[in-house]
Amino acid sequence: MTLRMLSQKVAQAVDEELMSAQGGFSIDQLMELAGLSVAQAIQKSFDVSSHPRVFICVGPGNNGGDGLVAARHLSHFGYKPSIYYPKQPNKDIYKRLLTQCENLGTTMVGMDQFEQHLNGQTDVVVDAVFGFSFHGDVRDPFRNVISAFQQTQKPIVSVDIPSGWDVTTGPTEQVSFQPQVLVSLTAPKQCASHFKGNRHFLGGRFVPPALAEKYQFDIPNYLGADQAVEI
């Protein structure tokens, strides 16, 4: 399935319209739907019996919020998620998402435990660090996270775009890791043309057809009650 890939500018415009008075969505609604689609894509890609331990690396923005929602759903799906969240914003929405995970007994991994946990206590790594609005160089405390993504042999699932990639041109001289699974949100971004992993999903079963028509991108057919479709 070939879908139109969005530029950063168009992706930002789509998000803004979804959350406008005309679109009617709130940011926490979109995070909930995005995170659920990520969790479903992981469930479709990695059986809980062979890959129960999912290590979710969470950034400080909306991409990280999607990761926190995914962690909660994965716990309910029978997986054993753990979270690395080194830069926690002082916003109520992220605090509540984190509390929801903690109430389910989700393991929180400290900075001094990060590499040991990733390499020894993980079956799948979720990259929920940076989304399509990221630009510039990766800085601490996430420099070591991206470095670990470059080196690990564990399968990586990236949320929307691989963290640190250029949203338009893809891998850079500094960041070139390839996730095994990519879960694009709303519509694939232009950098997805450089994805060489095994499975590419789309999560965006919330886009009104009129909005997709306005910005000239496609809405695929989702099966049954699925929130993620392989493309």
Automatic annotation (TrEMBL):
Binding, K(+): N63, D127, S163
Cofactor: binding details: Binds 1 potassium ion per subunit.
InterPro entries, A to Z: YjeF_N_dom (IPR004443), YjeF_N_dom_sf (IPR036652), YJEFN_prot_NAXE-like (IPR032976)
Domain of life per record: Eukaryota
Binding-site positions, (6S)-NADPHX: N62, N63, G64, G65, D66, G131, F132, S133, F134, H135, G136, D137, D160
EC number: 5.1.99.6
Family: Belongs to the NnrE/AIBP family.
Full protein name: NAD(P)H-hydrate epimerase
